[in-house]
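PROTOCOL LOG
Step 1. Enter all chains and additional molecules of the complex.
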Amino acid sequence: MVLGLVALAVVAVACAPNATQSTLEPKGPYAQKSYDLFVPVFWVAVGIFVIVEGLLLLFVIRYRHRKNQTARIPAQVHGNTRLEIAWTILPTLILAGVAVPTIATIWDLAAKPTGDVLEVNVLAHQWWWEFDYPDQKILTANELHIPTGRPVYVTLCAVGFGYGTPVPSQGGPPAPNACQTGPPDGQPPAAIGAAVIHSFWVPELAGTQDVVPDLTNHLTIQADEPGVYEGQCKEFCGLSHAYMKFKVVAHTPADFERWVAEQQAPASPDVSGDAAAGKEIFLQTCTACHAVAGLETANGQPAIANGGPNLTHLMSRQCFRGCTLEVNDENLARWIADPRSVEAGSFMPDYGLTSDQIDQVVAFLNTLE
Amino acid sequence: MASVSVPAERPGGLLRRPHATTGWWSWFTTVDHKKIGILYGITAFGFFLIGGSEALLIRVQLARPDQTFLEPAVYNELFTMHGITMVFLVVMPLSAAFFNYLLPLMIGARDVVFPRLNAFSYWAFLFAGLFIYSSWFLGGAPNGGWFGYAPNSVTDPSVGMTFYAIGLLIAGIASTVSAVNLAVTVLNMRAPGMTLFRMPVFVWMGLVVQLLLAFSLPVITIGLTELLFDRLFGTHFFDVAAGGSPVLWQHLFWLFGHPEVYILVLPAMGIVSEILPVFARKPLFGYQFIVFSGIAIGFIGFGVWAHHMFAVGLGPVANTAFAVSTMIIAIPTGVKIFNWLGTLWNGDLRFATPMLFSIGFIAMFVIGGLSGVTHAVVPSDYQQTDTYYIVAHFHYVLFGGAIFGLFGGIYYWWPKVFGRMLSETWGKLNFWLMLIGFNMTFGPMHILGLQGMPRRIQSYPASLGLSFWNMVSSIGAFVIAISVLVFLINAISSFRKPKQMEADPWDARTLEWATSSPPPEYNFEEIPVVHSLDDLWHRKYAETEGGRVVPVAAGGSGETPSAGEHAGGDGGAGHGAGHAIHMPSPSYFPLIAAAGFPIVGYGLIFGRPAIVLGLVITLAGFFGWAMEPSSE
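Step 2. Run joint prediction.
Step 3. Record the structure below.
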């Protein structure tokens, strides 16, 4: 009754088209492998469910005490060893049947893909994602761009606030293929806050992999078709855990090359009017944490991203703040004016800028295309 | 049976040993396992109402997308406190209530082996709960999840996770002491003839649970102490930069945490194993198999912890091993379910409320067990872990399982404890509302999880397409709330009826029904002599040569054993109303000794002098306890 309805609902809604972050609609071979295990096991479970609940219902109806029936004391049966052996061995066999493909797939998914593989380092901050393409020397945030039909091997690192990601296109070393948990050379250890555990998850492209401070974890994802796939941090990581989302944008290989070329270009340094004023404010305050390739800080140093996203091509992104806010003037102004009213516990301070100054900074940010 | 050789009197005693076993004050000094059981039950139920209210707030927040009813800081406190409350302050102590009340009665004993220690366990548990809840008023409740994953639980600047660590350490002291006490009681205090394999299954499950507690609590104690040291004294157990390891916390937590799951659900399995035979009017099918599968679950339960950590990155070898061990533990669990079905087969089933909850338990637990097996399929779990699919799974185990079983137990033993019946009409309404509300709340969570809703999120955007089932789930939560309200009405109104004092209203099979309802302080006038499993049933019914079961002509139901069958014990034959039975006197000291713990806790957080004060109080309590005469 109730149970049957629940089971029906599971099946019916499994196909509902409106869920955009669903594990039930794999869009690539790695997610497909998890799904291909889930579906048969689900139906085996449904089979056992029907048998057990069916027997339960049958016994409840068949052996119920009827009102007009004379009191009956049933035979005092204590058990049956053959039955016990049967219902110990049968489940064992079923589980053994489940275990074989499970184990095979565990090893399959753990293997590093070979051939033409794109490698990306994923740095999980509280509460946003940084994507570092070591071979392409690109650094971006909250949007992971990938080519279709090609495995993407991600290296997952949890980093603390203040972790300075070198800007690759400015000649900084490519991030290592193993997670660096301490501060980069030359920085005092105290500059780095403690990293916490996150979990990297794009259900339509692959299962979860946790991002753990003392481990260097890897995961392979792949999209078959161009499109935007929703991702989200799955492991509770503090105050604004719910707002640590990201998007995976899959392009055709040609489009991906175009995107790479755009990202590798430095930001246009020549600005005027409000944007020029905004640039001055940016250099004095924002470069404490944010970098823009080609920009030098007030004291002539190249900007290093010390905890905040690299903003070189901010305007090429759809979203910011863990991909939960659309990049537009209104949202940017609201964010700069009081980050903690937008995101609980945000590490971005409120610099107390006037609304004119904020408009100028936003005007400057608008030039970062 | 307790106090063996203590000084007959002591000079200048400050607190004389109290005598009164009635009146409101006696509840503070009692060492009677039945009163302590009732205290556990009432306290746990109070926390159940609080934890349930927290759940309702969570469901209001999640009813619709993009809600701002609760800000993230408060939401995180609420889901953390909901988990801590339901695990440590509701299901564990509610099970302890049943164990305390019933184990001595079921094995034919007069009390537990260490009555004052038993009171101490209760008070320490109560103070642990109050201590944790006081954090709401003293700087913020725990907010790092009941699982308290480091480093987030270390670096969080609010004081909440310090309350978490200290509070759970105190609760751990309470549970460890109680575990030793009850395990020794079961092993040493059984009535003559009550061999291990004549013990009711509930007693067996009680023994297994106490041993699980005794072996798993030390592990979490180490973890919590390290967390506390990291937070208070600047150690680096979980700090990567200094060579510590966050994964260490996860191993310690789950090496406790998975046996904990069985600590939570085995008591309910024991309760159901008592109720089904009574209302089917035939013995439990496969008694030995149910007992041995319970023991097997206890052992294997220590070897599956890393299935909570499949996505952590332990590598394919570990994931393979724990996938296999997790599948293996499904086998004894299945054996139990089939044996319960076997018990129903060919029975004469009477659907009183305890039976309804027991059958509800089986029906719901099967769902939780099956979804559990899908987690053992590791690549499938990579998708499901940390989603609402998991939330659905463990609520089917811990609510559909443990809570349904415990409610069945409440309805079943209520007449024994209070001498009054609960209303069957209200009881049935309670059951059906709870079954419907429960499935409405947690059934849709399977779908939500598979559709990509992570756990522990304060809000979700409308664009994820999760709104409909979240609304259904929230409505279901309020149906559950109504069912609990119905229970409260039922419970309170039962006290307006006269005591029926019927010893054996259900025509039951086990010894606790052989004494009056409620039982006298000394439980049995004469210690019963046990001849078989389901001893009480065999006193009431006999099998004819043709295999028919007929009531025994002489003696009615609920009589104590006939003359000549009692074991000498404390009283001789012929005494009335237990005059010559010596029971341990009440004592102030368990309460005093336990009262020092939370004060030490506050001292650790707010200032060192309170540590000294707390230690002095606890030590004074223990000293007075040790020097206390058996009576004065």
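Step 4. Note key features.
Confidence is low (pLDDT under 50) at residues 168-176 of chain A.
Chain A touches chain B through 99 residues (CB under 8 Å).
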